[in-house]
């Protein structure tokens, strides 16, 4: 049975998710998602921009797992930050996934290039539709992704429903202290995308020595640290053996000293700035 966290709306979210970013639509995304579901994952994370919702949906259907046992996340892309835009985008995502509701729907980026002068009002409009979609039963929970503190504060001015989740880049060597503190204070769960970094942790001496100390892989140490910090990691892989490996870390009990050592690693890959992204 997968461990869960309780969100600020009272609903439960599985403590480990399976990320599908860069899993190509078709056989790759289908097989990876099916492998994850067979390996015991019950939380699948996709997005409109990943262009693989149809394959993910097919895997969900073919898994034979009851819908109520699954937790499915998808995301609103940058071209749909308006009330009607969000309405059309959600409808399209539901159709591609073959689902009647989404467990968690996120605004993917807070400040897309196309709305750089009006991101605050655009987000408020999209959020207003998402709130209505919760009321209509099309979405269970709503949240955001890549939001910094000022984006969250802006949204709070008009939001009737508080975001339950903020999915941001978090990994050893990528600790976004300001937004972490803010979200924890506001009872917003932090999901970690790319919790294994961009490959740089696998040659890091500290991570290698900790893997040896605990008799685990570097990836498992990174995921154990994520959970230790109170984050919800979303590891991604298209390889069945890695998918299973990334699930088997819950028996690791990091010492406070070791967790602190990971937390204070130098930034190895750069933290994305949503206000200057070129999309």
Automatic annotation (TrEMBL):
Annotated site residues (Lowers pKa of active site Tyr) in this chain: 75
Coiled coil, from the record: none
InterPro entries in UniProt: AKR (IPR020471), Aldo/ket_reductase_CS (IPR018170), NAD(P)_OxRdtase_dom_sf (IPR036812), NADP_OxRdtase_dom (IPR023210)
CDD domains per UniProt: AKR_AKR1-5-like
Domain of life: Bacteria
Binding residues annotated for substrate, in chain numbering: 108
Pfam families: Aldo_ket_red (PF00248)
Keyword Lyase: no
Entry keyword set: NADP, Oxidoreductase
Classification via Gene3D superfamilies: NADP-dependent oxidoreductase domain (3.20.20.100)
Record-level Gene Ontology MF annotations: oxidoreductase activity, acting on the CH-OH group of donors, NAD or NADP as acceptor
Catalytic residues, chain numbering: 50 (proton donor)
Keyword Acetylation belongs to the record: no
NADP-dependent oxidoreductase domain location: 16-264
Protein family: Belongs to the aldo/keto reductase family.
The protein, known as: Aldo/keto reductase
């Amino acid at each position: 049975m997968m461990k869960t966290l309780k969100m600020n709306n009272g609903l439960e979210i599985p403590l480990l998710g399976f990320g599908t970013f860069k899993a190509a639509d078709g056989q790759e995304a289908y097989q990876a998602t099916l492998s994850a579901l067979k390996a015991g994952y019950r939380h699948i994370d996709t997005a409109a921009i990943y262009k693989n919702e149809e394959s993910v949906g097919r895997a969900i259907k073919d898994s034979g797992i009851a819908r109520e046992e699954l937790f499915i996340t998808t995301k609103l892309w940058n071209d749909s930050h308006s009330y009607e835009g969000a309405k059309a985008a959600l409808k399209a995502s539901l159709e591609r996934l073959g689902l009647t509701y989404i467990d968690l729907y996120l605004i993917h980026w807070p400040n897309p290039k196309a709305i750089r002068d009006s991101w605050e009002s655009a987000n408020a409009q999209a959020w207003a539709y998402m709130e209505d979609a919760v009321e209509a039963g099309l979405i269970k929970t709503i949240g955001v992704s890549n939001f910094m503190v000022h984006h969250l504060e802006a949204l709070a001015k008009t939001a009737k429903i508080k975001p339950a989740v903020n999915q941001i880049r978090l990994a050893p060597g990528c600790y976004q202290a300001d937004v972490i503190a803010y979200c924890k204070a506001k009872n917003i769960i932090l999901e970690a995308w790319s919790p294994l970094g961009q490959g740089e942790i696998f040659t890091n001496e500290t991570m290698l020595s900790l893997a040896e100390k605990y008799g685990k892989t570097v990836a498992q140490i990174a995921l154990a640290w994520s959970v230790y910090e109170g984050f919800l990691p979303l590891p991604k892989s298209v390889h069945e053996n890695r998918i299973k490996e990334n699930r088997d870390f819950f028996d690791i009990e990091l010492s406070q000293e070791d967790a602190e050592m990971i937390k204070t690693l130098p930034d190895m890959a750069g933290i994305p700035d949503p206000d200057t992204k070129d999309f």
